[in-house]
Amino acid sequence: MSTRDPRPPLTPDLLAADFLGYQQLLTDDERALVVRAREFYAAEVAPGANQRWLDEEVPRHLAPRFAEEGLLGLGVDGDEPARRTLLTGWLRMELARVDPSTATFVGVHDGLVMGTLAVCGSEEQKAHWLPRMRRAEAVGAFALTEPDHGSDVAGGLATSARRDGDAWVLDGAKRWIGNACFADVVVVWARDVADGQVKGFLVEKGTPGFTATPIRGKTALRAVENADITLEGCRVPAANHLAGANSFKDTNEVLRRTRGGVAWEAVGVSVGAYEHALAYTRERQQFGRPLASFQLVQDHLVRMLSDITASLGMVVRVCQLEEAGERRDEHAAMAKAFCTSRMRDVVARAREVMGGNGVLAGHHVARFVADAEALYSYEGTREVNTLVVGRAVTGHGAFV
């Protein structure tokens, strides 16, 4: 029997879980940025991730460091934004691979809020907010989900907006809003009482009538501070109405773009759990042998790697369609539903091969198992995304 180690050398340029080498589709400059980001995440995000998760501590202190590394707002309003879709997706995967909570914190600020401004903001709104957000001088939040409306928010959204002279008055409530308690600006979606259309508004920190209360006791993404928002006669200037956000179609355009990002995060959660499980099985001895040398353990590892590889193939292809201007709603919906479903299986197998140690925070995988449940549900449940794809392939909507 050969004693040669079949593993490739683990260099900063190589992600071992990228079994088919999808990273090679990036340009040389993009790969260099990915490697730099990977090193940054390992040096500054990974240390303390478990403790922050246990303590429900948001890593707000890291936001300026992300800005210094040039990792915020890539492709939002720069040159060739479509070409950067694969790069930004890969970076989200790399961050979720280390800490899903930090990936969500950054995803809200960078993807949802900066993305909304890029898609729906006026030139004045973009000029005012995007440079500040890219430098992490201002943090954003995105308020769409409501206490009684999640999957049905398109037709059921109840928060109201009423034009009153040179201002809009917002009334209602929002739930599960990440970053809301400390955000400098919150994108609030509300229904105009005059025409019944969903519109977007920029609510700045300190606006009277806006209250955010942290949601405690979460068992997933504990290092993300989600909040309940109450809007009571919240008066915002007319200039804070997002110029290009005048119907739920505009809202959905933002979600279509970010839904693919959640699929990338799901791949990252899978990769992170797989890597910790693989390292554990190589080191852990049972019956006088490493766990990795047992057939049943290798079966779990290969199934995990296969799910990761299939998921990577899907998100990469969706990015290629985006870059070609051919991506449709159902493409992002399929990727989100598939990758989060495979993620659930991967993290379960990772915990299984680690036995009892798999439930200890110190061994990392328990955090990925818990966080996977949040990714599985937010930005469209598996069921709702399945119906988006089902409508595309059958021609029949089956949402109700």
The tally of domains stands at: 3
Sheet with the most strands?
7 strands, mixed
What general form does the structure show? globular
CATH superfamily of the largest domain: Butyryl-CoA Dehydrogenase, subunit A, domain 3
Alpha-beta content class: alpha+beta
In N-to-C order, the SSE pattern is: HHHHHHEHEEEEEEHEEHHHH
Number of strands: 9
Beta percentage is: 5-15%
Q: What distance separates the N and C termini?
A: 60 Å
InterPro entries: ACX4-like, Acyl-CoA_Oxase/DH_mid-dom, Acyl-CoA_Oxase/DH_mid-dom_sf, AcylCo_DH-like_C, AcylCo_DH/oxidase_C, AcylCoA_DH/ox_N, AcylCoA_DH/ox_N_sf, AcylCoA_DH/oxidase_NM_dom_sf
Cofactor: FAD
Domain Acyl-CoA oxidase/dehydrogenase middle: 141-233
Domain Acyl-CoA dehydrogenase/oxidase C-terminal: 251-393
Describe this structure in words.
It contains 12 helices and 9 strands. The chain is of the alpha+beta class and 400 residues long. It folds into 3 domains: 22-134, Orthogonal Bundle (Butyryl-Coa Dehydrogenase, subunit A, domain 1), CATH 1.10.540; 140-246, Beta Barrel (Butyryl-CoA Dehydrogenase, subunit A, domain 2), CATH 2.40.110; 249-394, Up-down Bundle (Butyryl-CoA Dehydrogenase, subunit A, domain 3). The strands form 2 sheets. Strands 1, 2, 3, 4, 5, 6 and 7 form a 7-stranded mixed sheet that branches. Residues 1-11 and 78-82 have low confidence and may be disordered.
